[in-house]
Amino acid sequence: MIDDRMNILSGLTGAIGNTPLIRIDSLSEETGCNILGKAEFMNPGGSVKDRAALWMVQAAEQTGELKPGGTVVEGTAGNTGIGLVHVCNDRGYNTIIYTPDNQSQEKIDLLRTLGAEVRVVPTVPYKDDMNFQKQAGRYAETLDNAVWANQFDNTANRMAHYESTGPEIWRQTDGRVDAFTCAVGTGGTLAGVARYLKEQSAEVKIYLTDPLGSALYNWVKTGEAEMTPGPSITEGIGNSRVTENLQGTSIDDALQVPDQNMVDMVYRMLEKDGWFFGSSTGINLCGAVEIARELGPGHTIVTVLCDDGSKYMSRLFNPKFLAEKGLTART
Ligand code: PMP
Q1: 18 plus 99 within the same structural domain
Q2: Does any ligand 1 atom lie closer than 6 A to the CB of residue 19?
């Protein structure tokens, strides 16, 4: 029998969260600050989205919308889908994923390998009725015992980070955190962590670090969600609208990171520090370094190591792809 005195995690759910907080040595030494990354790539599904997936499924169970043998439908191209399939497999639910047809075949193959039914639909803007997220929502309504996870506007996503990521960061730093930053896709991570940390201390500064081709930098700076010129090769981050998850969050400032800086950061992390990170992590670390420079030596800045580089082999880690986008892999 397993009891509380043993140091054993209970199944997949028990293995989500409680990730290490890792000091990024080279960046910390260079800036004289502690640059710390929450190691979300160590979740069972390999990303920060496992937490959101678990909380959204649990919320639907609690309201009774999702009953044994039910189905979770979501519009996603990436990590949320992966997280949902892991959680749904563990709890006996089916997973149906709508994804736009501009996504890499590797991602679609991975979701199918994990056990999702994947429906690839034409890539059209959010305002179009045939947008993949809207199709997911409509399809869920036609099924019995099914829910649309709706990660952008379902605040169970934010709650995951308010109840787990935020408190973990506060405990792991013993309350000595000067600033937190990350990029925003749904906003669940930034909003949940920001809300928790600000409640502990109003002194903690929250920065939104945005890639190009997103409206959130302008939203923080001016209150208008106006798109900046893109595009960006980053995946899973940037948004043209302010989601329910992001709405009402106290954010002190925003930063903008061009793709070349992100590429330089991920290659540098790999070659000099040994870390293999994805593109959103590159954006986050660039943001953290900029904040360190702004605040000066002696501060502690926390960010998120969202996922690792293995899903980005054909893009971020493919010099030919980078060259086509006017980017170079240099360190
Ligand atoms: N990084 C990656 C790799 C992601 O998949 C996502 C989720 N879309 C994010 C960052 C952004 O997280 P959030 O949705 O909580 O804003």
Answers
A1: no
A2: no
Residue 269 in domain:
yes
pTM (2 d.p.): 0.97
Is 37 near ligand 1, meaning CB less than 6 Å away? Answer: no
Q: Does one domain contain both 181 and 272?
A: yes
Q: Is the CB of 315 under 6 A from ligand 1?
A: no
Distance (angstroms) between ligand 1 centre and the Cα of 281 equals 10
- Ligand 1: residue whose CA is nearest its atom 2: 236
In whole angstroms, give the CA distance from residue 86 to residue 115: 9
21 shares its domain with 63? no
* 331 inside domain: no
DSSP string, 79-125: HHHHHHHHHHHHHT-EEEEEEETTS-HHHHHHHHHHT-EEEEE----
Question: Ligand 1, closest atom to CA 279?
Answer: 3
Counting the structural domains of the chain, the total is 2
Per-residue pLDDT of the chain (331 residues; tens, 9 = 90+): 778 889 999 999 999 999 999 999 999 999 999 999 999 999 999 999 999 999 999 999 999 999 999 999 999 978 999 999 999 999 999 999 999 988 888 889 999 999 999 999 998 988 899 999 999 999 999 999 999 999 999 999 999 999 999 999 999 999 999 999 999 999 999 999 999 999 999 999 999 999 999 999 999 999 999 999 999 999 999 999 999 999 999 999 999 999 999 999 999 999 999 999 999 999 999 999 999 999 999 999 999 999 999 999 999 999 999 999 999 997 6
Residues 64, 203, single domain; the answer is: no
What is the number of residues in the chain? 331
309 lines ligand 1 (CB under 6 A): no
Query: Could you tell me if 114 and 85 are in contact, meaning their C-beta atoms sit under 8 angstroms apart?
Result: yes
137: in domain: yes
Q: Which residues of 75-90 are buried (b: 16+ CB within 10 A; e: fewer)?
A: bbbbbbbbbbbbbbeb
Q: Is 49 a catalytic site residue? A: yes
- Identify the domain containing residue 28 by its residue range: 11-42+164-324
For ligand 1, atom 4, the nearest C-alpha belongs to 236
Residue of 49, 134, 205, 311 marked active site: 49
In a domain, 285, yes or no: yes
> Could you tell me the CATH number of the domain that includes residue 239?
3.40.50.1100
Which tokens go with 97?
Answer: 């994923």
Rounded to the nearest angstrom, the distance between the alpha carbon of 40 and the centre of ligand 1 is: 11
